[in-house]
Amino acid sequence: MGFKAGIVGLPNVGKSTLFNALTQAGTAAVANYPFCTIDPNKGAVPVPDERLQKLAEIYNSEKIVPTQLEFMDIAGLVKGASQGQGLGNQFLSHIGETDAILHIVRCFEDPDVVHVEGKIDPVGDIEIINTELAIKDLEVVASWLNKMSGSARSGNKEAKIIVSVGEKLKKALAEGKWAKSVPIEPDEMPFVKAMNLLTVKPVLYVANVSENDVPKGNAYVEKVSIYAKSQGSDTTMISAKIESEIAQLSAGEQKEFLNSLGLKETALNQMVRAGYKLLKLISFFAAGPKEVHAWTAAEGTTAPDAAGQIHTDFREKFIRMEVVSADDLIKYRTINTCKEKGLLRTEGRDYAVRDGDVVHIKI
Question: Rounded to an integer, what distance in angstroms lies between the CA atom of residue 347 and that of residue 351?
Answer without folding.
Answer: 6
